[in-house]
Amino acid sequence: MTALTGFRILMPPGWSQYRVDEAGRARFMEKLSARMKQIGNPELDVRLRMLANAQWRRLEQTRTHSVYFPDREIDGLAHLPLSLAVRQHVAPSGTVFADGLGSLTTTAIETYDTATGPIQRWQSEKAGSDDMAGITTRAVGYGFAVPGADGRRGLVFLATIPYPDDADPVLVEGATELVDSIMETFRWR
Fold it and tell me: What is the DSSP letter of 75?
């Protein structure tokens, strides 16, 4: 087997990738501010930039590599407020990658055997509190072990799907299916 050089994944039209570094943060903030200027709500602009900066710090703390967002308007496509983050994961010594994922979630992890190898998947929901009261967030995680390595290393993708508590369940399930479909395109390079 030749050495791996990374991965590829196909995103729907209107999605962008941002590296979780200073340049990626600046690029994202620039795009966010431009969008808020279009809306014409300076108070919302300040609040969203504060939230985005706090979220970016959390991404840096978890050593997230990149995030993907639907952030460009495409005629005929409605974008839901969801994101997909990717980071490297190394299981503790003496543990294989799949077993080491238990530290990332308290929910059951399912394994799916595919033509490209096993994929671990888990899903949870958390009701919002304080400023996020009335908003539930669905998290869907995916684990991909590096093939042919020491068995401990891989990539973890975490999709975040926030929705109002009174959202149509069909939309929430549709967003989950969209993320599942994106993850089906994952391939090692």
Answer: T
Under the banding of pLDDT at 50, 70 and 90, the label for residue 89 is very high
Those residues whose C-beta lies under 8 Å from the C-beta of residue 116, and which sit 6 or more positions away, are 186, 187, 188
| Alpha-carbon span 129 to 161, nearest angstrom | 16
Q: Which spans in the chain are helix H?
A: 22-39, 42-61, 97-100, 169-183
Sign of CA dihedral 37, 46, 14, 27: positive
**Can you tell me which residue has the tokens 């005929």?**
76
Segment 138-149, tens digit of pLDDT: 999 999 999 876
Judge contact between 160 and 137, C-beta under 8 A.
yes
Closest CA to 161 of 178, 176, 180: 176
Cα separation, 28 vs 65, whole angstroms: 15
pLDDT higher than 60, residue 13 = yes
Please state the pTM of the whole predicted model: 0.87
Q: Is residue 93 a contact partner of residue 41, using CB atoms and an 8 Å limit?
A: no
As beta bridge partners, residue 141 has: 122, 158
